[in-house]
Model the fold of this input.
Amino acid sequence: MQQELYDAKGVPVEPLNSDRVLIDHAVRCWEAEQVNAERINGRKRFLAAGLMAVLGLGLYRLEWFYDPEMIPRVGNPWLQLIIKALLIIGLLLLATSLVVAYRPSFGSRGYKTASIHLALRRDERGLEIPIQAARRTYGAYGSLLSKNKASWAKLYYAEMIFTAGFSIIVIALAMYISCSQPA
Done:
């Protein structure tokens, strides 16, 4: 005879099915890593949008150094050179951050996707189906977890490069504004 279980309030509860709990936990872990992968992709898109915004401002065109009569707004040629060099370095850093964020990891060629681990295998015939399902789901979760960790590290590095590039561009613009002569 099975003993009846009660919760903290004294309400009868069904006994837990350990297989179901194991599978549910594996599925929750997999779904959590899928959410993390989506967050990583969102931050990558933010970097790309930031680069497009900077390019949209027209910083790559350097003709704004001159007024309509082609008289330089920044009188000192060395200062012009420094500002232009800072802008070029800043834009190169922004582009580099995008390359770092989106480049595939070393050894990722031929790398199977995490979801390939979800398929049940014939070599696990002796195991019960719930155990196979839990094992496969945990395998997929572990694979996606390691991919996400590598992606977070690359993204962190890319964001640092992006911040450095953006800061250099802001410094160049501040120099231009403070040293330019009115037209």
Observations:
- The beta strands are 5-6, 12-13.
- The chain has a mean pLDDT of 76.
- The chain is about 65% helix and 0% strand.
- Helices lie at 18-56, 77-102, 129-179.
